[in-house]
């Protein structure tokens, strides 16, 4: 093995604190997102009483918020570079969205559920580009692909 190919097959990037933290942030934000995507349609259909089609469509606003905030945050990170502040803001917004979703009950309107989903989606979307950029910035050049796919 030559010096140029040394480390390509190794996954020692898990030892780097910045990469490890990026993995943890990505893991928790995605866990929140997938939990909501799985739970909310059941809630909208079973508790609020919407149709199956409507309960499936309730996820769309979250994804639109996610796409919008991911785009905005990616641009902000590249221009301003305040990834730590944006990362904290992302978790704060996700926390607010999750807290609002936890307050839903039988009398929750469909519009409220959509608003809560948009807030949560906005927070999740903010965390996505931040975790990728943070991990890519500290990864060895030959491991950027592995780090990105792991995030």
From TrEMBL:
This is MFS transporter. InterPro entries: MFS, MFS_dom, MFS_trans_sf. It is a multi-pass membrane protein. It holds the Pfam family MFS_1. The keyword Ligase does not apply. Keywords: Membrane, Transmembrane, Transmembrane helix, Transport. Residues 15-151 form the Major facilitator superfamily (MFS) profile domain. It comes from Acetobacterium wieringae. It is found in: Cell membrane. The chain crosses the membrane at residues 18-40, 52-73, 85-104, 110-131. The keyword Metal-binding does not apply.
């Amino acid at each position: 093995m030559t010096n140029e190919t040394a480390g390509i097959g190794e996954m020692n990037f898990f030892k780097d604190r910045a990469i490890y933290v990026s993995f943890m942030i990505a893991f928790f934000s995605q866990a929140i997102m997938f939990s909501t995507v799985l739970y909310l349609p059941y809630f909208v259909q079973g508790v609020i009483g919407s149709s199956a089609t409507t309960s499936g469509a309730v996820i769309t606003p979250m994804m639109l918020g996610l796409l919008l905030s991911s785009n905005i945050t990616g641009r902000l990170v590249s221009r301003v570079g305040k990834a730590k502040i944006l990362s904290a803001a992302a978790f704060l917004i996700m926390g607010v969205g999750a807290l609002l979703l936890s307050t839903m009950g039988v009398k929750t309107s469909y519009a409220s559920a959509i608003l809560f989903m948009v807030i949560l989606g906005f927070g999740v979307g903010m965390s996505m580009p931040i975790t990728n950029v943070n991990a890519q910035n500290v990864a060895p050049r030959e491991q950027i692909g592995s780090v990105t796919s792991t995030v």
